[in-house]
Write a structure and sequence with these properties.
The protein has 1 helix and 6 strands, in the order βββαβββ. The chain is mostly beta strands. It has one domain. A hairpin with a 5-residue loop joins β4 (58-60) and β5 (66-72). The longest helix is centred in the middle third of the chain and has 8 residues, at 45-52.
């Protein structure tokens, strides 16, 4: 049985050459071996373009936990969709 939890807050999207403050809303899905996070990030539009092209981005949450993420956008402007990549073991609520 899968369990879900919602996390919202202010964090930082980091990658080589990128240190972008963002607001995030994530839904954690925890079940058996499957642990994933998905949601949206929002930041000033001028900086989101740079974030979308960043290599190996990570999201640093308010509590200092970090997760590797993949970013994508379905529309030309607005929030960016985010999906975790790899392990979520270090998340306190995971």
């Amino acid at each position: 049985m899968a369990t879900t939890a919602r996390l919202s807050g202010d964090g930082v999207l980091i990658a080589p050459g990128l240190n972008l403050p963002v607001a995030y809303t994530l839904v954690l899905t925890l079940g058996g071996r499957r642990r994933a996070a998905s949601g949206v990030i929002d930041a000033p539009e001028a900086m989101l373009g740079q974030a979308l092209s960043a290599r190996s981005p990570r999201l640093r949450l308010e509590d200092g936990a970090e997760l590797s993420v993949a970013l994508r956008r379905k529309i030309p402007t607005g929030p960016v969709l985010i999906q975790s990549v790899g392990s979520l073991r270090r998340l306190p609520s995971a």
